[in-house]
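[Meeting: bench + compute handoff]

Bench side (C.D.) handed over the final construct sequence. Compute side (W.E.) agreed to return the predicted structure before the next meeting so the bench team could plan truncations. Sequence as handed over:
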Amino acid sequence: MKTYFVKSLLEKLVDLLRFVCHEIARFWRWYKRTYKQARWYAKTGIVMASLVALFLIYLLMVDINFLWLFGKSPSLEAIAHPKQDAASIVYSSDGVVMGRYYRENRIPVTYEEISPMMIKALVATEDERFYEHFGIDFEGVAAAVKDMVAEGDARGASTITQQLVKNMFKTRTEYSTGLMGYIPGVRLCVMKTKEWITAVKLEMFFSKQEILTMYLNTVDFGSNAYGIRTAAQTYFSTTPDKLTTEQCATLVGMLKATTTYNPRLHPEASRQRRNVVLHNLYQKNGITKAEYDSLSALPLVLKYHATKPGDGIAPYFRQALAEELNEWCKENGYDLYGDGLKIYTTLDSKMQKYAEEAVAEKMEQVQRNFNADWGNENPWHDRSEEGQDRFVENLAKKTDAYKRLSARFPNDPDSVMRYLNMPHRVKVFDYELGTKDMYLSTMDSIRYMTRFMHCAFLAMEPATGDIKAWVGDIDFDHWEYDKATAERQPGSTFKMFVYAAAMEAGLGPCDDRVDEYRQYDAFDAGHNPIKWAPRNSTGVYTGAPMSLKHAFSNSVNSVAVAVAEEVGMQRVIDVAKRLGIRSPLQNTPALALGSSDVTLLDMVNSYCTIMNGGRRNVPSFVTRIEDKDGNVVY
């Protein structure tokens, strides 16, 4: 059946091609006969009309992607409702901007929020006849052709509208994949044609003000600054409406080449280009001669601050939030990194600040104690240099440097290690400076960074599950791995589940159990049966009975394990799961002392369940989400 359908379709296509070829041949014979019989002036008219008709047919064929020759073009729907990637903004519960999610760091603005001088500088430099044409500047095209013929070097003839088309619809990549695109020289012609067609359509749908606004919201200013608002903040720490004339000229000057004229990378080239833009403004009566003279003499002054995805409040929280939101976005058809969502979270910025300060203060103290205790001795050693080197080498094998060197020297491990032990300038963490430059080899930098103690901190509202503060480690720039969601042994904090299971089994806080040495059946790492006995932190067993309340409050290990065995380790596991623990728990006597790995997030949620009268909440990150138009979507 399928073969018959394909065969029938091919036959119809062949018949269609035959018909088209026959009609073209018949039209050509009529055209030649008419042309021969016409007078000279009629022949001229026929030729001109034919050229116009052929050009219009060519435009139509490109627009409809005739026989897949020219590649896909933007649809009318896409042109009428263009989509611009916009950063999603994260807010704290008290209204503070915490950070952004983005592929292109862009926050759209309205026409009224842009400095009028920015508009004047843009038009004077990029498209002086912008208000006169309808998307295509034929005068500019003619001048470009003339320069090409006369000097072999054409000036740019793209209008602002055409540049907007190129930026917004990616006409030089996404759509230009037709068969004609494989022919050298033809590809560029097809791409320019699409830009012309789409530019004219864009001018039909939008006013000049709207086109200028879209352009300035779309264009790339380098340094991961997309759009005028982000560019103004990145280079001058201001907003688009407060940009000065010389700042506007600097930003417009960058549009010719964002790297070549980047004011941070090439200040002198940027200053010269800025003055070219100022001269254009003067020629178009945007500024006076006196203003031009004074402004062009000014030095280039920046207040540069390039934003990174980790910048802002509570980076570990925002990292965990993104993981939560990605699933929601997938289910609801939103793009977290491009739809300009406004995400209002449960986190309190003041509590977060206090949490970070407390962590920094306490961990610096812990680190000092650690360094004083260990001195120059490495804490990962096993009393042999060989074991110490193995530990560092295993960490080195996970680095990008090791992978690059291994690919370069696939059969020469000595060369790999030689390069890994060569000192070079690196940035490492420091409690006083935050980040400091040191001259270390890759291996020594691993040894340096591995000596730091780590932690996590969470604060949660027991009644609601709202997360109020989240610190995933001591410094996000150097350790992005979040310890709040990493599985670690909880130690004695797990005893809460043991005594909760005991209460559920009918035991009370005043019931007594003997603090004594006792062995239990267990298994070693190789799953071989062994005898295991818990040790008290004091190293002493009193041999006396004590209440469960006393044993719990004093964290007596022997009693905790005895109680867990009495009520059943499976009951302890079941209680822990019901209270909020999600990671696997091993049914072994050591579980009572926190031998199984759990996350801090689960532990905090479980303790909140107890404080909430046994009612467990799912940890809550978000209170509401709005789309870019302000509609509440969550």
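W.E. noted at the follow-up: The chain has a mean pLDDT of 89. C.D. will use this when planning the next construct.
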